[in-house]
Amino acid sequence: MEVVIVDSPEQIGVLGAQAVADTVTAKPDAILGLATGSSPLAIYDELGRRVAAGELTLKDCTGFNLDEYVGLPDDHPQRYRNVIEDEFVTKTDIDTANVHGPDGSAADIPAACAAYERAITDAGGVDIQILGIGSDGHIAFNEPGSSLASRTRLKTLTHQTRVDNARFFDDDVDAVPVHCITQGVATIMEARHIVLVAAGRHKAQAVHELVEGPISAMWPATILQMHPNVTVIVDEPAASRL
Ligand code: GLP
Question: Could you tell me the domains of the chain?
């Protein structure tokens, strides 16, 4: 695990985007793993800047989103498919038809989860996964206690995550869905390169556990210590407990 401590969230964006650009330069039809949350936004902004400047193209890339709320209407702005569309797809030249996410409205959720796993495998697996981390150490929506061998499945969000994410729902925690579909911990671990980004003091304990803690399902991100190719990019406040 390589840990890079930077001065600002903007620098997280520059280094994260550079990692994506390196992957795409080596493999123009790379499979990108996409994350929601505020942490990766600087990466998407920088990728958008590079595409607009003609320095990079993602036109042959495919994207797979990490997770999705269950039960939000198709046009809800916080549906992760829509968030990725607004924050990443529209800023770059990736083809929206090539960006996929778990189907949070599926009638048969277990079948949709299995189909999503197959789609990732059939595409050849994720080349570079952008990842955030929850203040409780979750990755995607694999909450504390998630099996470290888990695959894409239905999960119940913890109260803490719903409180953390209420800011995207007019600060109304009751408006945050209770359920989600998330790639499993083992699904995420199959990505060939993982770039985890975090900013802010509220992430300091999670980053401490991620880098220095014992591997435990109670801090799901700690399994990344077993991955051969992880880059952790954090600002000083997030690194303050290292
Ligand atoms: C949500 C997402 C995670 C993300 C986390 C942290 O729970 N499902 O993928 O890592 O939020 O988000 P932020 O970067 O906004 O702190």
Answer: 2-134+147-235 (3.40.50.1360)
